[in-house]
Each structure stands twice: as structure tokens, then as C-alpha cells.
Design goal:
The chain has 355 residues and is α/β, with parallel strands linked by helices. It contains twelve helices and 18 strands. It is globular and about 65 Å long. The relative contact order is 0.13.
Length: 355
């Protein structure tokens, strides 16, 4: 199952709206088939592993990180494929929460006389598939918030200079993190100040994540990198319903997807933004700030994972804060996270926190 989980992670970032699943088929103590969900969400992991195993799948044990699907979509059910291949036993990490599948795949296997074992490495699988479950259950994707900051929590000097606070090894690791998410998201202020490309570079990765900007008024550079490349690499813009119709038409003509969202006071509602992204099929979103967007997501308790890269320099109180004003008056009301890991990345300190 540990191998199946590792295989499933290969699909993270390019299988949405489907989950990134891994499958291993074992016959007589030997691995005869391996598979993971392919780009675009199909073929599914079980189909890939069965094709590799061929006749050796008969009487074998299949290890799958998520309950095999039982419904007819664009591909036949994986449960039927396992039955047809003559698999004798299926070991599953977690049940599918999708109402079209939940427990139906397991029941189909058992009805065919196949032994089913549930719950092997369930916690690890649930963490890997959390984005899929969040979208299925709550309608929103899993959200990772990344902050690259100075020792005193600043992301830019008072003049706005921010490139580069962290070192090249940290920046390369960030590109790898982008590749494992369906989309990269920034606020309008970051898009205006940095004119970012938000792409994965120098890793030999074939696919690119969706690039998302959260901007109530759509006041973004029309000659910037995102505008110039929107027809080649997807750009989605979450905006207010009161945005200028001419700007909406202009960005749509440039190739962007426009997502109207509700307001919360004078700002876009972060809940509405994530619901809109979930509605488009996204399961994993990697947010890179800036401070105002980070604060709104934290205040709304929408950050599932927090990744910080801290560099050994101090910028002072006049610098731009990594997290904007949140209105926290008592420690008890502040969002808290649990440290999962920390390590040196070049000269920087990376820490990963979970809600």
C-alpha cells in the first residue's frame, strides 16, 4: 500500500477533477502491475495496473488507495475491471465519499466473491486525497498557503522590493510544490506588483497548473505576463459581481476564465472564491499570497496546509507583512497549526504546518 500511495502522488496536480489514485497488483509475492491516475483523470489507476499485469492479475491481490469506482462515466467502472480480470483480493485504503461510488464499489467486489480488506494506511491516503474529499463533501479544494518571508515576517521592503528574499533552492522547491497542485493562486496586489508568470519552470514538467488571480475590480495589468499568455496557459480570475463589464469582456477576449464571486464587506468572500474554484473541478490549490489574501484565507479558516520559507534577513516593521490585518484580539481566536516537518533548504528554513 505504501508503494500504491507513492504512485498515486505522481498524479497530484494533473488529474482533477478526479482523485490521484495509485494501484499495485501482487501475484505470488511479486509485483506484476503498477498504475496511477493519468493526466486529465483517466485512465484510472486500476486500469493501468491491470493492463500491465495482464493474465497475471488472475488470482492476484490488488492494493488501491481509494475504493474502486462503481459507476459508468467516461470509462467503465474499475470494480468491474477488477472482477473481469479475476483478481482474488482487493485491499483498499479509504472509501470514496462520492455518492455515486461510496461503498458501492466494495459491495460489487464482495458480491463477485472477491475478498476485500479496508483501512490499510487509511490516514496517509486520507491526507493525500483530502482535496478530492473536500471538493466532494464541502465543494471547495484543499488549500496550501505558501509564505516566503524574512525573519520578522516580511515579504517585501517598504519600497516593495521582494525578489529575492529566499534563495534559489527554496524557489526550486516551490516550483515542485506548484507542480503537485491543480492551480497556483495570488491576490491582485501581488499580480500588479510582481507581474508573475506563476508557471512551473526548470523541472521538465509537461503540464502547467491553472493560474488564478483574486481581484475584485479586475484592475490587473492588461500588458502583463498573465494577460499575454492567457491563451497558452489557463488564467482564471475571481472577481466581484460589480466589476467593470468592459474589463470582464477584455479579459475574456484575452483568454481568461472569469469567475464572479460574492463580497464579504468590501472584499471578495474567500469562501465564495474557493466554492467557485471547487465548482470548476479543482481539488488542490497552492496560494502564494500576498498579505491581504493570506489574511482573509486564514481568518476564514480555509488554510489546510501552511508552508513557510524563512530567510535569514530582517526587513523591519516598515516592510510589507506576510500576513495582513486579521483583527485577532485574543490568542484563543487565532488560527493554530500543527508542525509536520521542518528542514533546511539552502540557507532558508522551511516548515510545513497543518490545521
Amino acid at each position: 500500500m505504501a508503494l500504491a500511495l507513492t504512485l498515486g502522488r505522481r498524479g497530484q496536480g494533473n488529474t482533477w477533477p478526479n482523485p490521484a489514485v495509485g494501484c499495485v497488483i501482487v501475484q505470488g509475492g511479486q509485483i506484476v502491475g503498477r498504475g496511477w491516475t493519468q493526466p486529465g483523470g483517466r485512465p484510472h489507476a486500476e486500469t493501468e495496473a491491470l493492463a500491465q499485469a495482464g493474465d497475471a492479475a488472475r488470482g492476484a491481490t490488488a492494493y488501491v488507495t481509494l475504493e474502486p469506482c462503481a459507476h459508468h462515466g467516461q470509462t467503465p467502472p474499475c470494480a468491474e475491471a477488477l472482477i473481469a480480470a479475476g483478481v482474488a483480493r482487493v485491499v483498499v485504503a479509504v472509501e470514496d465519499s462520492d455518492s455515486r461510488v461510496a461503498r458501492q464499489g466494495l459491495e460489487m467486489l464482495r458480491a463477485a466473491g472477491i475478498a476485500v480488506t479496508m483501512g490499510v494506511m487509511a490516514d496517509e491516503a486520507a491526507q493525500d486525497l483530502q482535496g478530492f474529499f473536500l471538493r466532494t463533501d464541502l465543494g471547495r479544494p484543499f488549500l496550501t498557503l505558501k509564505l516566503a518571508e524574512s525573519l520578522d515576517g516580511r515579504i517585501a521592503t517598504a519600497t516593495g522590493e521582494s525578489q529575492w528574499i529566499t534563495g534559489p533552492k527554496s524557489r526550486r522547491l516551490v516550483h515542485a510544490m506548484r507542480a503537485r497542485h491543480d492551480a497556483v493562486m495570488v491576490g491582485g496586489g501581488t499580480a500588479r506588483a510582481d507581474d508573475p508568470s506563476l508557471t512551473v519552470r526548470d523541472l521538465g514538467v509537461a503540464h502547467q497548473p491553472v493560474r488564478i488571480v483574486v481581484s475584485r475590480r479586475l484592475d490587473l495589468p492588461l500588458m502583463g505576463v498573465l494577460a499575454r499568455t492567457a491563451k497558452e496557459i489557463p488564467v482564471w480570475i475571481a472577481h466581484g459581481r460589480d466589476a467593470d463589464p468592459m474589463l470582464i469582456d477584455t479579459w475574456r477576449d484575452l483568454g481568461a476564465v472569469l469567475l464572479p464571486c460574492d463580497l464579504e464587506g468590501v472584499h471578495l468572500s474567500p469562501v465564495s472564491v474557493l466554492q467557485a474554484l471547487g465548482g470548476q473541478g479543482l481539488t488542490r490549490v497552492f496560494c502564494e499570497g500576498g498579505g491581504a489574501l493570506a489574511a482573509s484565507l486564514l481568518a476564514s479558516d480555509l488554510v489546510d496546509e501552511l508552508v513557510t520559507f524563512q530567510a535569514g534577513l530582517a526587513l523591519g516593521a516598515e516592510g510589507y507583512p506576510a500576513i495582513g490585518a486579521m483583527g485577532v484580539e485574543r490568542l484563543a481566536s487565532a488560527p493554530r497549526f500543527r508542525l509536520l516537518e521542518h528542514q533546511m533548504v539552502g540557507d532558508d528554513l522551511m516548515a510545513v504546518w497543518r490545521r
